[in-house]
Amino acid sequence: MLLADRGYEVIVAIDGDSLKSAIKTAAIDLAIVGSWNGATASLELVQCIRRLERKLTLVMVVADSTEELAIGALRAGVVDYIRRPCSDGELLTRVASGLSDSRSESRKESCTARYANSDAFVGESLTALTIKATLAKVAASDSNVLITGETGTGKELAAELIHKQSSRAQRPFECVNCAALPESLVESELFGYERGAFTGAVATHKGRFELANGGTIFLDEIGDMSPWAQAKILRTIETGQVHRLGSRQGISLNVRIIAATNQDAEQLVETEGFRKDLYFRLNVVRIDLPPLRDRKEDIPSLLSHFVRRFSRSFGRSVEGFDRETMTRLCHYDWPGNVRELKNLCEAIFINQPSRLITMADLPEPYQNRFNNLNNAAGCERDQLLAALFETNWNVSMAARKLHWSRMTVYRKLAKYHINKSNENLASLALPDSF
Q1: Is the Cβ–Cβ distance between 146 and 265 less than 8 Å?
Q2: Residue 32 in 3-state DSSP?
Q3: Lesser CB count within 10 Å: N end or C end of the chain?
Q4: Residue 21 in 3-state DSSP?
Q5: In this predicted model, what pLDDT tens digit does every residue of 304-321 receive, in sequence order?
Q6: CA 115 to CA 111: how far, in whole Å?
């Protein structure tokens, strides 16, 4: 009924015969498989549908999710996996995301414009499915959320998806880049000001919190804000009010707060870079977004997604990547995560690629990088060792010297099997060029 009300043509198959008849006679874009007889029966039904129609997009709805079921669903060709109970917004989002076939594109845009987000969280790995399910569960509540993850992992996208699947979806979504907000403008930008509050205040100005009233405010990179600014935000959370500059009158708010940081939140608290009281106020629900190198099985899906997206925006017809190029891209660590992958795809389209993208279509820096991947790995290991020796094995100082995060240093230590107690390290000399 929900889908029909939004303009979709819905066919209900109540048994195997009606299912086979529908698949053979109707132009179906997407099939939603329920679990009325249990997850195993649903998986068998998925396999039956896949035998009848190999290219049909399948979405599976289950009551109880297990890792074994999720893996079985993926192997059977399920593109999305929803756990009941799910909100109307979640279901509409998943359907809109699944309807990528050209036959359904115009209907999707006209009937579900609010949910048909081309930047939906893409991925078919167990990690990606778990993140999608987590975002949907978090959206159903109204608690504050703290999202952590490296730069480029999709923290803003995750916040936006939470908002769009929540009961606040019809209300504003305000995104604030805390790292780019000058200290002198924090108060006026976040909380607003009255006319005449200071020189140049010629009219009343609503702050970002007030503009988000009834909806969601996303405070990106909150760990980069000063303790003074964090105290102001804490006061707003505690009182549920904002005071514009130049006014003694408080303005009541009903705002959900989602904050994010690309730093180690607990380490920030220990070093007093993140107020402990604010941290506990925001860390009601925690979502950790993994770097792309930890879910490389999603790289082909992401590349296909961006190829389709840029094919539409650039008006080109590109099929995808050849096998060699795809292999190289899947083995790359992507330090800039999904954002770096997206930017690479856009650069490829700017250079007008072939119908099938090859290594020659990649920007020259990436061609050189992939051609010298083995040498680069050795060089990276040497640089890491040099930085550690120079800083007397102080990981934080070495990270700053290399312009890496501390977590990246720890991952590289594990990757290259570097251990401080290793006897061989004492005999290594620093590179002359470092």
Answers
A1: yes
A2: strand
A3: N
A4: helix
A5: 999 999 999 888 889 899
A6: 9
